Amino acid sequence: MTNRPLLALTTGLVLALSACGGSGAGGGENSGSAAPADGDITVGVSMPTQTSERWIADGDSVEQGLKDAGYEVDLQFANDDIPTQSQQIDQMITKGHDVLIIAAIDGTALTSQLAAAEAAGIEVISYDRLIRGSADVDFYVSFDNENVGVQQATSLLNGLGLLNPDGSRGTATGPFNVELFAGSLDDNNAHFFWKGAIDTLKPFMDDGSIVVKSGQTDIGQAATLRWQQETAQQRMENLLTSTYNDGSTVQGVLSPYDGISRGIITALQNVGYGAAGKPMPIISGQDAEIASVKLINDGVQYATIFKDTRKLAEQAVTAAQAYLDGKEPEANDTETYDNGVKVVPSYLLESEIVTKDNVTSALVDTGYYTQAEVDAGQAG
């Protein structure tokens, strides 16, 4: 597990919070304080799990940013258990926390909690995963998730040689055997990732340069419940047994998350991929988890999508500060994220494809990891 460097976050927060403005129909009844006094304002932060280094890092970064801004913080991890997260949020509301920042396990499971928050005048910031089916989501901070899917598919196409880095058509023609993996269907982001990726891959599937040999091209078939590495490994093992038992090989895998990628890689290595004469397929990923960054550096995993969660945490803190100042956070997207009841005003950040060629510039030079961490595959 990892603790991200927080110096850059803290510096950015000082600047971002001092410049935080915006206008409109401000916060709820708990709002109106220009600055926290003696730590008497508490922000509840609900994160989905501690089984992923990414969510531990997010929790740590949000907590540190809020503390640096002078707030009390109640950070809770729900260990991928929906009733646990619901109970934790209920307790935050009962305690009278002033703002809630929530990364939901299931984006549809918190309607009653959000209604209670609204009744108590507590603003809710949906963090990275859009909470669905509720009018009581006040703001959403995330990345451009459909574009993340585009980047995942683009990295796969780059690795196969079907696309050049500049977006022009590559010299490779295929056909390449590619298998598709998706995230957890109860996470709204999984659908955005899938749409971006499939829209990008479709022309290559249509012209036959990519072949999904298993025939499993529907998100329901490709889904990975709770994004679990073990679940992905088992599905890859089943695909190898059922589809590639005729001497054919997998040449590419669309993976939406580094943990899923590592499960896929384990299944492939167990049947000889990566050894002489049987190259590892081109495999995408997401989140720049340190174990996968080492695999990329070692030429095992091809790419990941880097979402700088320090910036995401900073934006969540900025949004919380705005509500506590009686204002509305600045949104840069007021059209895209319809949760089924309302279009939630959003602030979206950009992401980056990382391959072996730019690990240093994207991750080391920016202070996200040290070179020693990349070399070891473990954050210190």
TrEMBL record:
Domain of life: Bacteria
Compartmental location: Cell envelope
Gene3D superfamilies per UniProt: 3.40.50.2300
Pfam hit, one: Peripla_BP_4
Entry coiled-coil feature ranges: none
Residue ranges of every copy of the Periplasmic binding protein domain listed in the record: 43-328
Cross-referenced InterPro entries: Bact_Solute-Bind_Prot2 (IPR050555), ChvE-like (IPR049784), Peripla_BP_I (IPR028082), SBP_2_dom (IPR025997)
Signal peptide: 1-25
Keywords annotated in UniProt: Signal
NCBIfam families tied to this protein: ChvE (NF040907)
Name this polypeptide is given: Sugar ABC transporter substrate-binding protein
Taxonomic source organism: Kineococcus glutinatus
Record lineage: Bacteria, Bacillati, Actinomycetota, Actinomycetes, Kineosporiales
